[in-house]
Design a protein that fits this description.
It contains ten helices and seven strands. A seven-stranded mixed sheet has the order 3-2-1-4-5-7-6, sandwiched between helices. The mean pLDDT is 92. Helix 4 links the parallel strand 2 and strand 3. The longest helix is centred in the first third of the chain and has 18 residues. It has one domain: Rossmann fold (3-Layer(aba) Sandwich). By secondary structure, it is an alpha/beta fold. Helix 1 runs antiparallel to helix 2 and helix 1 packs antiparallel against helix 3. It comes from Halarcobacter bivalviorum.
């Protein structure tokens, strides 16, 4: 319960900070739902976050973890310490993931909103699995091409196919949009075992449109996500060494 309270507290903090950007507030809400999934499979002994989005994730993880290391080629981290002094306890390493050479193994490796940005995700997964402890877990969250809101966008003519880039994809410089099957395919190609693969938040509208609706509605959509895992807004995968 304490960790869930920490999650809610940090998400609310950043929602307030970005309250004028309605689409980003909804992004943070989906982030909260995703981290609820992570927490179900989270050890927290020695955690590696690959890529800090400059939002709530590092602040959440530093409170959930006994030890946190963050690796990112862009330093979004130093400025965050001014807002969250507890982040001084984390280790930040400015590096490309491919060039990072860890001196220890990790119980949890966090790849949230990251894998869709890299040129060769199988190579990255193959590399980082070597950094896991024997029973360690890689936690992956990616946007889902077959989300109902994207499928509706295709029918309305906003996208030619659900795999085309929408405005959010372009703004975030995504390299691909995963679906349930292609995510499994890349994980297995890296000789990792998928222990859990679930959808995060049923979504029929864009983030900007969702921002006008009651929070209870969005919470309810997330609670029934399991009825349509393959068509949720995002996908969560927990995987381990084979």
């Amino acid at each position: 319960m304490v960790k869930l309270e920490i999650l809610e507290e940090q998400i609310q903090k950043y929602m307030k900070k970005y309250e004028t950007k309605s689409y980003y507030v909804e992004y943070l809400r989906t982030k909260k739902f995703g981290y609820q999934k992570i927490l179900e499979n989270f050890s927290g002994e020695n955690v590696l976050e690959l890529g800090s989005d400059g939002a709530a994730t590092s602040s959440i993880l530093v409170r959930w973890s006994k030890r946190l290391t963050i690796v990112d080629m862009i330093d979004k981290f130093t400025s965050l310490i001014k807002e969250d002094s507890l982040l001084k306890e984390a280790i930040f390493i400015k590096s490309k993931w491919e060039e990072f050479i860890p001196q220890e193994q990790f119980t949890d490796i966090i790849l949230t909103d990251s894998l869709e940005h890299v040129d060769n995700p199988v190579e990255i997964l193959t590399l980082i699995k070597q950094w896991l402890t024997k029973d360690g877990k890689i936690h992956i969250i990616v946007p889902n091409a077959l989300s109902f809101h994207r499928l509706i966008g295709v029918e309305m003519g906003y996208l030619n196919t659900p795999y085309d880039f929408n405005e959010n994809d372009i703004r975030a410089e995504h390299k691909r949009v995963y679906d349930y099957d292609t995510l499994i395919q890349d994980i297995k190609a890296a000789n990792l075992v998928v222990s859990k693969l679930e959808g995060i938040q049923l979504k029929f509208l864009t983030d900007t449109q969702l921002s006008t609706l009651p929070n209870e509605y969005k919470e309810a959509l997330n609670k029934i996500s399991s009825i349509a895992n393959k068509n949720c807004a995002e996908l969560y995968a927990c995987c381990q060494k084979s």
